[in-house]
Every structure is written in structure tokens, then in C-alpha cells.
Amino acid sequence: MTSEAAPPTDRRPEDLAHRDRTELRALAERYAAALDLGDRRDYLALFTEDAVVVVHTPDGSVAQERRGAAELLKEFDDLAGFERMLHLVGGHVAHLDGDGTATALVSAEAHHYRPGDADGEATDLYCPVRYHDTCVRTGQGWRIARREVFPLWYETRPVTASPR
Question: Which of 130, 5, 162, 145 is nearest to 60 (CA)?
Fold first, then answer.
């Protein structure tokens, strides 16, 4: 008697949930990579066409709200003063709502490198951040429909070694 693996369409619900959670984490990681690499096209591909991003201040008040592709791309303008960036995704907890939507809590660290001028030292603007995401499953995979950005604090750190 031989046993055959079930085709992908016959997977158990827990297998599908695991796949969805893995894809949702990958979405958060792709967001970090797109920012770090300055890849506007990949960045936009992470969001629904009518996506909303709300950025809060460390005290929780709303600093800005952006809607749609043209507004979302302004994030790259905000980051233009930094020579390099590194966004590290730490924790990721996703809740699947069962109707093609999900919410996710993403914990991350953001590093923003600025070289010093002739008289100044190089710095890293460090910011631990939490993202509260609402995601939807589309024909192209999971996309962010709404992202709430909660910086926990900002710290400017001296950079003692020059990057290569």
C-alpha cells in the first residue's frame, strides 16, 4: 500500500494558516528591504492601491497620514537625508480573520546613517518601532491596506567606524 501526498488544494486549515503567517512576515521583511534599498517599485507592490499609512509620534499623537501611491512614496523623500538605512524585523504576530484579512503586530528596529560633515561626526538615528498592520489577501498575495507606525523613541548615536 502506497500513500500519496495530498495535492496543495487539500491542505489542512492549520497548514494554510501557517503559510499565510509566513507570507505576512515576508511582507514585513520586504517592506524593510525596499526601504533599505530605496526600491520604490517593490515598496509600492506591498500595498493595496488605496492603502493608508498613519505615522504617530512617540507620545501616540498622529504626525501624518498618507493615502495612495503618490503619498506613500513621500516616505522616500523623508528618508533622503540618510546615506544608508537598516531596518530589522524582530517580532511578528499575525491574526488571520478568516475572510481574507489579517492583522499583524510587527516589532522592528530602524537605523538611519548620516555621514558627518567636515566638522561633525557620523551618526545613526536609531528608532525602535511597532507597526500595526491590516492586510488583505489579493490575487497577487497579501498586501498592506493600512499601516499604523508607532515609533517608541528616537536616539542619535555616534558612529565610530566608517562604513565601506
Answer: 130
pTM of the model: 0.86
Q: How far apart are CA 32 and CA 153, in angstroms?
A: 18
Buried b (16+ CB within 10 A) or exposed e, 113-125: ebeeeeeeebbbb
Q: How many CA atoms lie within 13 A of 11 on its CB side?
A: 10
pLDDT tens for 133-156 read: 999 999 999 999 999 999 999 999
Rounded Cα gap, residues 41 and 66, in angstroms: 17
Residues 6+ away with beta carbon under 8 Å from 135: 24, 27, 101, 102, 103, 104, 142, 143, 144, 145
Give the pairing type, strands 47-56 and 141-151: parallel
Checking phi first, is residue 148 left (phi over 0); if not, alpha (psi -120 to 50) or beta? beta
What single-letter amino acid sits at 84?
Answer: R
Dihedral, CA of residue 121, residue 114, residue 32 and residue 66, to nearest 10: 130
